[in-house]
Amino acid sequence: MTTINADPAEIKKFSDLAHRWWDPSSEFRPLHEINPLRLEWINNSIALSGKKVIDIGCGGGILAESMAKKGAKVTGIDLSDKALKVADLHGLESGISVHYEKISAEEMAEREAAQYDVVTCMEMLEHVPDPASIIRACAKLVKPGGHVFFSTLNRNPKSYLYAVIGAEYLLQLLPKGTHDYAKFITPAELAQAIRNANLQVNAIKGMGYNPISKIYSLNQDTSVNYLVACTRPV
């Protein structure tokens, strides 16, 4: 029997909050605020309209729905029943069609290898026991010549101060215990895992938050939050 690459405590943590996923003033407010940045960055890298896309660790479907709204045919997968139910319900309310399924990235990669033009895996790698396994699954799911997008948190004293102490305790942007600093991943570590999965790194972007203006922006500073764009060579 294959061991699922997931931490039950992490699944429970997000499941317990699932009913608040689409409330922009809830614990998921940061996701709502960064989503337009993530979406435009992906769409500027590869026009989503008409593309077959899979969102790994889709949660309540914030990114998945926004990509479908751009004209992509989107599948969202997650291991939280409650989050997926919320995603389905919101899709019915919004009229935006996304196919959601409870399945691991690794299982999906075995079933639908090389079937997707675009694979996204955002804010998930720092929540699983074996991020390299997820990266390999993403590499397997994408077609040759297709695009893969990751985002995660860097591991250094600044990211601990900003993403844990600042975001969870001082500014209370996120619930306490959202992140485990030991699971943060440096850009060098992520780039190596991407190369080991036979993907090619194309671009790295930082994401910053101004606590005074309360605005997120993309920049060149990858010291805390960062995004990586890759392709699978033909």
Automatic annotation (TrEMBL):
One of its GO terms (biological process) is methylation. It comes from the Bacteria. Pathway: Cofactor biosynthesis; ubiquinone biosynthesis. It catalyses: a 3-(all-trans-polyprenyl)benzene-1,2-diol + S-adenosyl-L-methionine = a 2-methoxy-6-(all-trans-polyprenyl)phenol + S-adenosyl-L-homocysteine + H(+); a 3-demethylubiquinol + S-adenosyl-L-methionine = a ubiquinol + S-adenosyl-L-homocysteine + H(+). It is an enzyme of class 2 (transferase). Its EC number is 2.1.1.222, 2.1.1.64. It holds the Pfam family Methyltransf_23. Keywords: Methyltransferase, S-adenosyl-L-methionine, Transferase, Ubiquinone biosynthesis. S-adenosyl-L-methionine binds at R38, G57, D78, M122. One of its GO terms (molecular function) is 3-demethylubiquinol 3-O-methyltransferase activity. The keyword Methyltransferase applies. Belongs to the methyltransferase superfamily. UbiG/COQ3 family. PANTHER family: METHYLTRANSFERASE (PTHR43464), UBIQUINONE BIOSYNTHESIS O-METHYLTRANSFERASE, MITOCHONDRIAL (PTHR43464:SF19). O-methyltransferase that catalyzes the 2 O-methylation steps in the ubiquinone biosynthetic pathway. This is Ubiquinone biosynthesis O-methyltransferase. The lineage of its organism: Bacteria, Pseudomonadati, Pseudomonadota, Betaproteobacteria, Burkholderiales. The gene is ubiG.
